[in-house]
Design goal:
254 residues
Length: 254
């Protein structure tokens, strides 16, 4: 995958940690392989990641995935969490804070979108002021996150229009959107200005990126590169049980 070396790649900590490799070995090894960043790493390990030259590319801006921005009863809690984490992200030069719509629980998509936009519209300008971007993560509701509301790119794109701030965009998770709608390359080509961060994994099974799964990542990475994207593409797949996480990461940098 030669095109991969022309993009800035990271890896998602929760997928590769606690698999028989000590944190410092994993971080230093990933940096030696050419990885530039790590996502969703425990705050206690932020200094260690930085010591090894890895940027912290994205962390959660608030909790939780299921109980998110689409409920007004969550507004005060999430707004306070976002404002606190925006300041922390600015201090640590973390470019992206991940946001979650929450589950529908009977809420129609238009109402959920409007409620999300209310909070994000107040908070995103503050993020933009300090160089941080809030990113709504698009997740599949078919396999991994039943009833999650931000489960199609069209919904997320309408939310971007409603919020209307450079401090807000989308985390385009390629695996999740393959499950829900496919048409990955065309979507990237048509809507890339709204995609501020990318996650990868193989489908089906959220496994490694290889010839056993249906997404052809060399073409996808080429499409991302041709948009002029300068952020991070983060691998968020589950390594096979018993495998060496550094070996799995190494294969992708060859």
């Amino acid at each position: 995958m030669t095109k991969m070396k022309q993009l800035q790649f990271g890896f998602s900590w929760w997928c590769f940690a606690n698999r028989g490799v000590e944190p410092e070995v994993l971080l230093s090894g990933a940096a030696r392989l050419g990885y530039r960043a790590v996502d969703l790493i425990d705050e206690a390990l932020w200094p260690l990641a930085r010591d090894h030259g890895l940027r912290i590319a994205a962390v959660n801006g608030h909790g939780t995935i299921e109980d998110g921005l689409n409920r007004r009863e969550n507004t005060r809690r999430i707004e306070n969490e976002l404002l606190a984490n925006i300041d922390k992200a600015a201090q640590w030069q973390i470019p992206v804070l991940i946001c979650f719509s929450g589950n529908r629980n009977g809420l129609d998509d238009e109402t959920g979108l409007a409620i999300c936009a209310e909070t994000l519209g107040r908070v995103a300008p503050r993020a933009a002021e300090v160089g941080v971007t809030l990113a709504m993560e698009l997740l599949n509701s078919k396999v991994d996150h039943p009833d999650y509301q931000a489960d199609h790119s069209a919904w997320g794109l309408r939310l971007c229009e409603r919020v209307g701030s450079p401090g807000f965009g989308l985390l385009y998770d390629i695996y999740h959107m393959q499950v829900m709608e496919g048409d990955i390359i065309r979507t990237i080509q048509d809507h890339h200005p709204r995609f501020v961060h990318y996650h990868t994994a193989g489908n089906p099974g959220r496994g490694p990126i290889n010839s056993t799964q249906e997404l052809y990542y060399p073409a996808i990475f080429n499409a991302i590169m041709e948009t002029g994207y300068t952020g991070y593409v983060t691998h968020e797949f589950i390594p096979p049980k018993g495998s060496d996480p550094l070996r799995e990461l190494a294969v992708l940098m060859q």
